[in-house]
Write a structure and sequence with these properties.
273 residues, alpha+beta, 2 domains, five-stranded antiparallel sheet, 5 strands, 62% helix, elongated
């Protein structure tokens, strides 16, 4: 699946995308730094340059096993001549290039792999290239942080399903009402809340009336990791038939230890008495 985003460099919005594991930057947007009216003309002038053709050819040789070197050599020999012209689409079709791609629609334009896009930006303005690199690196850092958060959140959801299944098969009596089922689930969720956060979901809502969501929505990455582990362990404890009070005591002790390791700092939480 293509992943699309945008960055702003010196008041210019530049689209980015990831396709088949390769990051691309829209050089049509970059070209507007030089000519807002005719960015495609800017790209065409850049591609007439012999140095550009050689750079593109070397990149494709390194990263594209399907690259057509014969067509590339023909372009390389003609590059720089007054009559020579080369559009992105012709380059792509003739050489099977993957370093430059053309997109239509809302995210339309000519896109180049990041190395190529940065080279194009240098041709436009060395200063602009430096700002572009900085903003793109910031975007990738934000994406990695979001990916980490999402992965931990999904892991927590999966373990929650495992956890509730264990409750269903071990704690819920036969022929109980849906309300009774929900109360049992809520109590077990609060076992984990108290073990990790030191309070029940209701206590947290009462203490934070202006916050939306629940206590787990405001958990840190480390707390979500710990919570995921606690859910697995609680499922094991339930299957082993441990009383809730004993499970709470064990889970609290484990939570304190794991958070101490994760935070690399001794936590001030006390074991439940």
């Amino acid at each position: 699946m293509d992943r699309k985003n945008e960055i702003v460099v010196k008041d210019t919005t530049i689209k980015t995308m990831s396709k088949d594991g390769i990051d691309y930057i829209c050089i049509t947007d970059i070209a507007r730094q030089k000519n807002w009216i005719d960015p495609n003309g800017v790209i065409a002038n850049w591609m007439r340059n012999r140095n550009t053709i050689e750079f593109l050819g070397i990149w494709e040789t390194l990263y594209n096993p399907d690259f057509n070197p014969l067509e590339f050599e023909g372009f390389r020999q003609q590059a720089g001549l007054n009559a020579f012209t080369l559009s992105p689409s012709r380059w792509i079709e003739s050489t099977n290039a993957i370093g430059i791609i053309a997109q239509s629609g809302r995210y339309g334009g000519t896109y180049a792999q990041t190395d190529i896009a940065f080279e194009f930006a240098s041709w436009i303005s060395v200063e602009f290239r430096l700002y572009l690199v900085k903003e793109f690196q910031r975007l990738k850092t934000d994406e990695q942080q979001l990916l980490g958060w999402t992965a931990k959140r999904e892991l927590t959801k999966i373990n929650y399903r495992i956890h509730t299944d264990a409750i269903k098969h071990n704690l819920i009596p036969q022929e109980v009402s849906e309300r009774q089922i929900s109360i049992i689930y809520a109590n077990e969720a609060d076992v984990l809340n108290v073990a990790l956060f030191g309070m029940t979901a209701k206590e947290w809502r009462d203490a934070n009336p202006n916050l939306k969501g629940n206590i787990r929505d405001y958990a840190s990455i480390n707390e979500l990791i710990c919570l995921s582990n606690l859910e697995n362990l609680n499922s094991v404890f339930i299957n082993d038939g441990l009383l809730q009070s004993e499970r709470l005591r064990r889970l609290n002790s484990i939570a304190i230890h794991q958070m101490s390791v994760l935070e690399n700092n001794v936590q001030s939480r006390d074991l439940l008495k």
